[in-house]
Design brief:
The protein folds into 2 domains: 202 residues, DHBP synthase (Alpha-Beta Complex), CATH 3.90.870; 94 residues, Rossmann fold. Helix content is 34%, strand content 17%. It has 11 helices and 14 strands. Helix 1 crosses helix 6.
């Protein structure tokens, strides 16, 4: 059933406006993927470099053939296996459907079908593809609630659909299916071992700068104002935190729980997620909380780099890059 809010949001998109909407990963800043006017505004509001492509969200897996061409058997198999879901497929673009603005002038396009009821309602009501990077300024921390979007974008977005907190909390996995071999471009909500299991073979990971351009692959990204310092173990985190506290820095800690009892005086606990899934769901909210508290330094212990934990580790590494 189409709600009044979804119907209004679809009208905003048809009028070249911008709509923030929830997905299972993060909130997206959506524009009509077929309108260069809307896309130009999207890039301007996002403050996104024009050569940095955006993902097109579709309302049904059957739309893959409308937006892609020369699709491989691997691409079709992954779409059947993981859509709707947090997996983006980079394929050769259908030039009749896909604008140069979406792809930064490249021959490939990233496509996905989100696994979030409100997002699917919007996509189906709108009827076309929605280009949607995360609904925040470029390079900053992604939003996982409607409140995050409002805080970041304010009146620069024409409508916000509030679907509560995102269930996954980190962006989609991106795989390149445009060539003869599937390659991992970005870790995300679908663990790479699940993709390998479906394909029946290992998936190579492209180094940053290799393969088609894709979102979220800059060395420095997802960054709060607080300086993020990543360490490998809670004991090391305590030593590192004490060093910053001794230097007069307001310091916080984000680490898997339970935390050790002998924490330094003055250390602010930003988060202690009890498991990896909760770590992923709360990651961006914790990074934002560090800024709300006015922290100078956030010392972080990542979860084990397995499953979605590998995506969390990737985001923290980029958040800590200078």
């Amino acid at each position: 059933m189409t709600t009044a809010a979804v119907a209004r949001a679809a009208r905003v998109l048809r009028a070249d406006g911008l709509v923030a909407f929830p997905t299972e990963t993060v909130y997206g800043l959506g524009a009509d993927a077929s309108s260069d006017t809307a896309l130009a505004r999207l890039y301007a509001v996002k403050q996104r470099p024009p050569d940095h492509p955006v993902i097109v969200h579709l309302g049904d897996p059957d739309r893959l053939d409308d937006w892609g061409r020369d699709l491989s058997d691997d691409a079709r198999l992954l779409a059947v296996s993981f859509w709707p879901g947090p997996l983006t497929l980079v394929v050769r673009r259908n030039d009749q459907m896909v604008s140069d603005v979406v792809t930064g002038g490249r021959d490939t396009v990233g496509l996905r079908v989100p696994d979030q009821p409100l997002a699917l309602d919007l996509l189906r009501e709108f009827g076309g593809g929605i280009a949607a990077p995360s609904a925040n300024r470029f390079g900053r921390v992604s939003p996982t609630t409607a409140a995050h979007v409002r805080a970041d974008l304010g009146n620069d977005v024409d409508a916000i659909l509030d679907g509560g907190s995102c269930s996954v909390g980190v962006e989609s996995t991106i795989v390149d299916c445009s060539g003869s071999h599937v390659r991992l471009l970005r870790r995300g909500g679908v663990p790479v071992d699940r993709i390998a299991a479906i394909l029946g073979r290992p998936v190579d990971e492209a180094a940053d700068g290799e393969g088609p351009a894709a979102p979220g692959r800059l060395a420095a990204h997802y960054q709060p104002r607080a300086r993020v310092v990543v360490v490998g173990h809670s004991d090391h985190a305590i030593v590192e935190a004490q060093r910053h506290l001794d230097g007069g820095a307001r310091t916080g800690l984000l680490a898997p729980g339970p935390l050790p009892p002998d924490l330094p005086s003055g250390l602010e606990i930003v988060g202690a997620p009890p498991n990896t899934d909760e770590y992923a769901r709360s990651l961006y909210a914790c990074l934002r909380d560090a800024d709300t508290r006015g922290l100078d330094v956030l010392v972080v212990v990542p979860p084990a780099a397995q499953g979605v934990g590998a995506a969390v580790e990737d985001r923290l590494r980029r958040a800590a890059a200078s």
